[in-house]
Design brief:
- With 334 residues, the protein is mainly beta.
- It has three domains: 17-119, Immunoglobulin-like, CATH 2.60.40.10; 123-224, Immunoglobulin-like (Sandwich); 230-332, Immunoglobulin-like, CATH 2.60.40.
- The protein has helices at residues 2-17, 23-29, 31-38; strands at residues 40-44, 53-59, 69-74, 77-83, 87-91, 99-106, 112-119, 123-130, 149-157, 159-160, 163-164, 171-175, 186-187, 191-195, 203-211, 216-224, 230-237, 241-247, 252-253, 258-266, 276-282, 285-286, 295-299, 306-316, 323-332.
- It has a five-stranded mixed β-sheet with strand order 19-25-24-21-22, with no helix packed on it.
- Strand 3 and strand 4 form a beta hairpin.
- It is rod-shaped, with a radius of gyration of 36 Å.
- The model is unreliable at 1-30 (pLDDT under 50).
C-alpha cells in the first residue's frame, strides 16, 4: 500500500513539472503587439482627398509619448524623428497614389513597438439637378425652388492599382447629416431623389462611399439653398415667334398698335405646370379672361399717350411656397 502511494506522489510531481508556463510570461512576450494596438492614431480629415494636407496625431494612454523616441517613415523614407514627436503632416498625392506611413516608438522604459498603415486618397463630386422650369435654349442652370424636386448624383473617383473602380461596385450611404435615407442607400445607388423642405430650409446632403473590396472610403457634402421663382417677360413676335433670347426691358415703349407678351415662370416645379395660376392685371384691374394664360395681348389706346402698368402674379396651387410677382411699365404715344 505504501509503495502505491509513493508511486502516485511521484506521478503527480512529474505532472506538475510539465505544467504550461504562467500566463504573465506570455503577456511579456507580446508587449510590442499590445502597445501597437493601444496606440491611438488620429487622421484628419478622416477620409483624405487627393492633393490635400493630412494631419496625424498619436496618443498612448498607458504610457508617456512625450518622453519617447519617435521615428516617422513615409514610403520607407525617414521624414521626422525625435522625442515626443507625436504629430506629423504631409500632402497626399493624386487619386490612387498610395502613401504608407510607419511609426517606430521606443518608450523611456525601453519597450519598442511600431505601427504602419497605408492611405489611398479617393474623392467624390456631387452634382445636383432641380426639376424646375427654364425656357428653351436657356444657358443657365435651373435653380432649386422651395418644395421643389431634387436629384443629386455622386461621381466618385476611386482608383486601386492604377485601375478605376466602377461606381456601380461601390456602396453609397446618403443622409442629411442627421438621418440616413435608408431606402435610397446601398450597393450601386449613386443617385438620390428628394423633395425640398416644406419650410424652405437649405438642403444638406451627405454621402459616404465605401469600396468593400479595396477598403477605400470617400465622403462628400453639398448644401443646396432654395430660391424664389421669378417672372420674366418676353415678346411673342408675329414674325419670329417667342423671342427668348431677349427679355422685354422695363419700362418699354409700345411702338406698334399691339404687343403680345409671353411670360416665363422661372424655377417653378415642372410637375406643377398644370397647377399654376396666372393673375394678370392692367393698371391694378384684374383681367379674368387671362387667368390661365401665359400670354397676353395689349393694345395701344386710340388717340392717347401715357403709360400703363402690366402686372402678373403666378401661384403654384400644389406647392404653397412657390409664387412670384412681376410687372412692366408700358409707354405709348398717339
Amino acid at each position: 500500500m505504501l509503495d502505491k502511494f509513493i508511486k502516485l506522489l511521484i506521478l503527480v510531481g512529474v505532472g506538475m513539472i510539465f505544467l504550461p508556463s504562467p500566463t504573465w510570461a506570455q503577456v511579456n512576450i507580446n508587449i510590442p503587439f499590445a502597445l501597437s494596438n493601444e496606440l491611438g492614431v488620429e487622421i484628419i480629415p478622416n477620409y483624405p482627398e487627393p492633393n490635400t494636407v493630412v494631419f496625424i496625431n498619436l496618443t498612448l494612454y498607458t504610457d508617456d509619448l512625450n518622453s519617447a523616441d519617435i521615428n516617422w517613415y513615409k514610403d520607407g523614407k525617414s521624414v521626422l524623428s525625435g522625442k515626443g514627436e507625436t504629430k506629423y503632416s504631409f500632402r497626399m498625392g493624386g487619386v490612387g497614389e498610395e502613401t504608407t506611413i510607419e511609426i517606430k516608438i521606443k518608450l523611456l522604459s525601453g519597450a519598442s513597438f511600431s505601427k504602419s498603415f497605408t492611405l489611398n486618397p479617393a474623392s467624390v463630386n456631387l452634382v445636383w439637378e432641380a426639376n424646375s422650369f427654364v425656357p428653351p435654349f436657356y444657358k443657365g442652370k435651373a435653380l432649386h425652388p422651395r418644395q421643389g424636386g431634387l436629384k443629386v448624383v455622386a461621381m466618385p473617383e476611386f482608383v486601386k492599382g492604377g485601375k478605376r473602380v466602377l461606381p456601380q461596385n461601390l456602396i453609397y450611404q446618403w443622409s442629411n447629416g442627421i438621418n440616413v435615407y435608408q431606402d435610397q442607400s446601398g450597393y450601386g445607388k449613386s443617385v438620390i431623389i428628394l423633395n425640398g423642405s416644406l419650410l424652405g430650409r437649405v438642403e444638406n446632403i451627405e454621402v459616404l462611399i465605401t469600396d468593400p473590396v479595396n477598403n477605400l472610403v470617400a465622403q462628400g457634402f453639398i448644401d443646396i439653398s432654395p430660391t424664389d421663382p421669378e417672372i420674366v417677360f418676353y415678346e411673342n413676335s408675329p414674325y419670329y415667334g417667342h423671342l427668348f433670347d431677349l427679355a422685354i426691358e422695363n419700362p418699354f415703349t409700345l411702338k406698334s398698335e399691339e404687343v403680345q407678351i409671353l411670360v416665363a415662370p422661372y424655377y417653378f416645379s415642372k410637375d406643377g405646370g398644370s397647377s399654376l395660376i396666372y393673375k394678370w392685371r392692367l393698371n391694378g384691374q384684374t383681367i379674368p379672361d387671362l387667368s390661365g394664360s401665359r400670354t397676353a395681348v395689349f393694345r395701344k389706346p386710340e388717340d392717347e399717350k401715357g403709360q400703363s402698368v402690366v402686372s402678373l402674379q403666378i401661384e403654384n396651387t400644389s406647392r404653397v411656397l412657390q409664387q412670384a410677382d412681376g410687372s412692366l411699365i408700358m409707354n405709348f404715344s398717339d
